[in-house]
Structures are given as C-alpha cells and as structure tokens.
Design goal:
Length: 401
C-alpha cells in the first residue's frame, strides 16, 4: 500500500527526530515511547512483508531459471532430432529415386523379354501347326522323295536339324519364360519396397512436422519464461532496495542504543566479577555468532552485534547477571527489548522477546526471569538476540558467558 505524500513526510520527520533526539528523550516520555513503538511496529511489519515478497520472487525466479534451462535442453535435443529426421528424409528420397530408376530399367527389360518370348512362341506355334496339319508323313515324304542314297542322307540330316531346331526353340522359350517370371518377381519386390519407402517418408514427414511444431512451442515457452523472469527480477530489485533501507534503519537502531547507553548507563572498564549466566536455560545452540558476516539483505560484510540463540517460542529468558534494568519496552528492529546495567560500563541486551517481565529501574539478580523468547521486531523466527556492550560498544558476549 503506498503512503500519501503528507504521511510519508510525517514518517520521515519522525525517523529523523528519533535519530537526532538526545538520549534522555527515549523511554522517559510515555507519548514518545508510544509514538516510537507505533512507528517501529509499522516498520517491522513492512519489513517482514517485503522480505516475504522478495523471498517469494527469488524462489519464483529460481523456478523460472530451472524451467528455462530445461526448455533449452529440450530445444537442443529437438534440434538434433530434427536434423537427424531431415537427414533420414533426404536419404529416403535418394533411396526412392534409386528404386524408381531400377523399376524403369526392369520394366524395359521385361518389355524386351516379353517381345522375345512372344516372337519365339509365335514361331514355335507356327511349326507346331505345320506338324499338326501334315503329321509325321510330311517328314517321310521328304525322305522318300530323295533322288539317291546321298540325297536321302542329306534330307535325313536336314529333317534332324529341323527337329533339333524345334526342340532348341522350345527350350529357349522356356528359358525366356523363366527370365520373364524372374524379372516380374523383381519388379514386384521393387514396387513393394517403393511403397514401403513412401510410407516411411510419410511417417518421417509427420514426425518432422510434429518435432518442428514442438520446437516452436518450446521456443515460445522459453521466451515467455525469460520475460517473466525479467519482470520478477525487476520487481525483486525494487523490493531489495526497500529492504536495504529497512536494514539500514535496523543498524541505526543499534547505533541509537549505543548512544542511549553512552548517555544513560554506567561507564568504566567493562569488567564483571565472575561470569554471566546463560540467558536461555536449557537452550544453548548458537544460530549466528558475534562478528562480521555477509548481511542477508545488503549482501555486504557487516558486524553482527550479538549472538542469536535458537530457542522455542515462550522459552524463559533470565538476567545474565546482577544489575539494574535501564530500558524495557519496544525498540524498533529489536522488538520487545530489555537492557540491564551491570555497572562499570557493562550492559547486557535481550531482543525479540514475546513478553517483557521487568520494568525500568528494577533491580535483578543472575537467573531472574526477565521475559520470554519471541520473534518481535525484525526477526525471521523465535530466538534470543543477546548482546553485551561496554560503554555502548558491542563486544563478543562469549567473553562473559
């Protein structure tokens, strides 16, 4: 929801006032505390909402990136399949052209063979008709009309040659018939092969068209995913910019606390007689230690001013040592917040509480319950953010525990 211009100016003035106001202004005026609590609560809710949006957008962007990668791999695969199918189509066209040439050759051979067969059959039929009409007496008449013995033998040889020629013609006719049958069989096989190739070409064409359509669809889907990703990233950048401002405000809260301690707490060497008691009895897992780390929002190296102790919602929080409560209330990004002055400039801080059980000015001893673990302020889940400051400057709490 966008704030109106007057309201944005009012909020800005309030933030500036919080930053430049003297330390004595904090927690001393009920109206100031209430105004600060309201502004801090609004900032906390906005930060949480923006963080959720950014996380959701980043998650969607990652999913879209995975989708784009998958689509590009599918496109690469389809490109290879299309190339293979196109090559196979060209090969089939060549095979069909070869088969057509073979068929034309065989058809020519069959026509020639058929012509030879018909001629031989006609000649043989004519001879058979003559023999049938005249019978074997025709051969006998030829022999009996011989003039002498020599002529008889010559006529006999002639008759034998005619008979042998008829037998040879019959044999050649049978051979030609066999060749004609073989050529027809080869032609039929070639025609069947050509028909099969035509069917294969048709199937290959349909497959190729299907793959090309799928490729075009995947290209469109990839471009759509890229456009969606670009839009998400643009929105994410806007959200991150807002979150950076909120994160900077959180750091300013820390600086303001240091200023508050400097002006209202004790001063000294920071030494403490003995050691601090662990602030969350039964829960000792440190989820984030003291020191420099990569800020989860700013993505730059920043100082984490305390330790985060993982504990369930409502777990007990106790005073680490004897001292006086110098602040107990809501404090911006720290949420429900308590500070205990242990003297000598040493102060312990307890942030993100679900409930505060002490008041400003109250004296506590080590082990006194001061609140319960929560997730108020700028927090991603239930835990205790525990700080130790010397003269307002954060120091490693592990040196005192």
């Amino acid at each position: 929801m966008r704030l109106s211009a007057p309201l944005r100016i009012a909020v800005s003035l309030l933030l500036v006032a919080c930053l430049v106001a003297p330390a004595s202004a904090f927690a001393y005026s009920n109206s100031d505390v209430l105004a600060h609590q309201k502004a801090a609560e609004a900032a906390r809710k906005k930060a949480a909402a923006e963080q959720a949006k950014a996380n959701d957008l980043l998650s969607q962007s990652k999913a879209l990136e995975d989708r784009i990668d998958a689509l590009e791999k599918e496109l690469d695969s389809l490109g290879g399949q299309i190339a293979t199918a196109s090559e196979r189509r060209r090969a089939l066209d060549g095979e069909m052209a070869t088969l057509r040439a073979e068929i034309e050759t065989k058809q020519t051979e069959i026509a020639q063979c058929q012509s030879d067969y018909d001629a031989r059959l006609g000649a043989l039929n004519a001879r058979a008709d003559s023999v049938y009409r005249d019978g074997n007496w025709a051969w006998l008449e030829v022999l009996l009309s011989s003039k002498d013995l020599i002529d008889f033998f010559q006529r006999t040889e002639y008759v034998n040659l005619l008979i042998a020629d008829d037998e040879a013609a019959a044999g050649e006719l049978e051979t030609t018939r066999s060749q004609l049958d073989a050529l027809n069989a080869e032609l039929n096989r070639a025609l069947e092969s050509l028909s099969a190739k035509r069917a294969e070409v048709k199937a290959q064409e349909e497959s190729l068209l299907g793959m090309q359509a799928s490729r075009d669809a995947k290209r469109d889907a990839t471009q759509t995913a890229r456009n969606a990703k670009a839009a998400l990233l643009a929105q994410t950048k806007k959200n991150i910019a807002r979150l950076k401002a909120l994160a900077l405000a959180e750091e300013q809260e820390s600086a303001r606390i240091a200023n508050l301690l400097k002006n209202s707490g004790s001063h000294g060497s920071g030494k403490y007689a003995g050691t601090f008691q662990w602030p969350t009895p039964g829960h000792t897992r440190i989820t984030s230690p003291f020191g420099y780390r990569i800020h989860p929002i700013l993505k730059v190296r920043k100082l984490h001013t305390g330790i985060d102790i993982g504990a369930p919602l409502g777990a007990r929080i106790v005073a680490a040592g004897k001292g006086t409560v110098i602040f107990a209330g809501y404090n911006g990004g720290y949420g429900n917040f308590t500070m205990i002055d242990h003297g000598n400039g040493l102060v312990s801080c307890y942030a993100h509480q679900s409930r505060i059980l002490v008041k400003k000015g109250q004296t506590v001893t080590a082990g006194t319950q001061i609140g319960n673990v929560g997730s108020t302020g700028l927090s991603t889940g239930p835990h205790l953010h525990f700080e130790v400051r010397v003269n307002g400057i954060p120091t490693n709490p592990m040196n005192y525990l």
